[in-house]
Design goal:
The chain is mainly beta. It has one domain: Jelly Rolls (Sandwich). The protein contains 1 helix and 25 strands. Strands 3, 4, 5, 6, 7, 8, 9, 10, 11 and 12 form a 10-stranded antiparallel beta sheet that branches. A 7-stranded antiparallel beta sheet has the order 2-21-19-23-17-14-13, with no helix packed on it. Strands 1-20 form a two-stranded antiparallel ribbon. A hairpin with a 1-residue loop joins strand 3 and strand 4. The chain is globular, with a radius of gyration of 20 Å.
Length: 320
């Protein structure tokens, strides 16, 4: 099962003096999503609905017969970071592309977008003479909320290939990709309407790193492989960080194995959050208006009336 691909990490509330500490651990349970996809959702569940400014984090696996067919968004940003395989994307404004291992797509849905996300079919004719599908697209998708003033902005994309994402090497055996924000003197090229830091760390065994998380930022850590320590060590999947510490540093170390994890933090918007599936606004009235706009193809959804993706299943359309 895909669940066997989820690794572990260790944590405890025992923390270095003055540093960020762990408030809560979240187990990311496996669930079906979209069309034939499997996700591990750590944020966006009953246990923790939102963690301002973050709405959702999925670790996903999709085989070449699955995907996320035509669907709308309004009011937030989706951040897709690929770990293996390839995903192709297409929207109703003719924006299209493919991202592969290490690549990033930062999509601002703003006032409205309808798009489709599907894996690229990968077959090996040598090992599979009949062309049997064997590949799986694996990645992370983060939803970042937008402030009220930005929810009505025009849709925008920021696509970065792996080699365009800056790296930092804060120590021997420690590598950090600075996907968003700034760390270890390295600044990302990504513009974040909602101030956000998104860091991808790989640590060799018996290493440590100090991560600066701006004071007041809400943050969490999600583990991808190996084991990292923030104290004594119990198995978890996601760790919610404290916000009101006197220090803005986070101490992380490895012991007898390598580790791969992401650190995410952002400036809370402190605004009401009302969500109806794929729409995130500030009031129920705004959500109802968004559903009406989507159904009537207006106020940002005009292109949705006739559009159907070329990469998704024929005739598919999510209904509200």
């Amino acid at each position: 099962m895909l669940a066997s691909q989820i690794s572990r990490f260790a944590a405890s509330s025992s923390f270095s003096a003055g540093g960020r500490h762990i408030l809560k651990s979240i187990y990311a349970a496996e669930r079906p999503e979209g069309m034939g996809a499997i996700v591990r959702r750590s944020l966006g569940t009953r246990e923790i609905r939102h963690h301002d400014p973050f709405l959702l984090l999925d670790e996903f696996w999709v085989n070449s017969k699955g995907g996320f067919p035509d669907h709308p968004h309004r009011g937030f940003e989706t951040v897709t970071y690929m770990l293996s395989g390839q995903m192709q994307h297409e929207d109703f404004s003719e924006h299209k592309g493919t991202i592969g291992p290490g690549d990033l797509q930062w999509m601002t849905a703003g006032r409205g977008i309808v798009h489709c996300e599907m894996p690229v079919k990968d077959t090996d004719e040598t090992e599979n003479p009949q062309g049997t599908d064997k590949a799986t697209a694996h990645g992370l998708q983060l939803w970042v909320n937008l402030s009220h003033k930005d929810k009505s902005c025009d849709p925008q994309y920021q696509d970065l290939r792996d080699h365009h994402i800056p790296r930092a090497n804060p120590g021997n055996g420690v590598e950090a990709k600075v996907i968003a924000g700034e760390a270890h003197g390295v600044k990302s090229k990504v513009y974040t309407r909602t101030p956000t830091m998104y860091l991808d760390y790989k640590l060799k065994e018996n290493r440590s790193v100090e991560v600066a998380v701006p004071k007041g930022y809400a943050g969490f850590i999600y583990m991808l492989s190996g084991k990292a320590y923030f104290g004594d060590g119990l198995p978890h999947h996601a760790l919610i960080l404290s916000q009101d510490d006197k220090s803005d540093t986070l101490q992380i170390q490895t012991k007898d194995e390598d580790a791969h994890f992401v650190v995410l933090a952002g400036q809370p918007l402190k605004e009401p959050v009302v969500q109806d599936r794929l729409f995130v606004l500030n009031s129920m009235q705004e959500v109802q208006q968004t559903v009406e706009d989507f159904r009537q193809f207006k106020n940002g959804f005009e292109n949705a009336k006739e559009w159907r993706s070329a990469i998704g299943p024929k005739g598919y359309r999510l209904k509200f």
